[in-house]
Amino acid sequence: MNQIDLTDIESLVKNDLIERLYRVDYLYCSSKITSREQIEWLKSLQIKLVVDLKQSHETDFSDREEFERAGIDYIHFPISSLAELSFSDLRELAEALISDSEPKLIYCMSSNRVGALLTLIFTYVLGHPKQRALEVGKKLGLDKEGLISQVNSLLDQPGSLCS
Q1: pLDDT tens-digit readout, 41-61
Q2: Which domains can be identified in the chain, with CATH numbers?
C-alpha cells in the first residue's frame, strides 16, 4: 500500500466551484459535489476515483450517475457515525484510496467526515503519529467540536473501533 506524505498539503479554496477543497499528496478532499460543472473541473485534475461519504438522502444530486457519466469511478461509503466504523472498514477504504498514486477525491457535505475518517486512516492504517494525523485531519475539514471529540476518543482508545 502506498504511503501519503502528510507534509504535502495544499488548500485549494481559491476554486470558486467547490466550497472546501484541499489536497494532501495525491488525495483531494472536499465538501459536497452538486453539479456537472464541478465534476468536469475535477476531471481536469485527472481524478480517476471518488469516494462519497454522504448518506443517500443528504442531497438530490445523482452523484454516482454523474461521476460515472464523466468516466470517473465512484464508491459510495456512507458514514452516519464514527462509532459504527471498524478497523476493517478503515483498511478497506484506505486500500481504495491508496492503492496507487493516481489522483482521487474523497468528499462529504462539509468535509468534516472526510477529515475525521482520514485522521483515523492516517493513524491506524498508515501508522502516522496520532497528533500529526489529527492536525492534518483538521486542515482537511475536521472542525466540528463533537466530531473532534469522537475522533480523539477513538485515537485514545483504539479498542473502541467496532470489531
Answers
A1: 999 999 999 999 998 888 888
A2: 9-110 (3.90.190.10)
Query: pTM surpassing 0.70?
Result: yes
Q: Determine the angle formed by the axes of helices 130-139 and 145-156, rounding to 10 degrees.
A: 160
The pLDDT tens digits for 99-145 are 888 999 999 999 999 999 999 999 999 889 999 999 999 999 999 99
Cβ burial 18-51 (10 Å sphere, 16+ → b, else e): bebbbbbbbbbbbbbbbeeebbebbeeeebebbb
- Cell 485549494 -> residue: 12
**Which pLDDT belongs to residue 75?**
95
Decide if 93 contacts 117 (C-beta within 8 A). yes
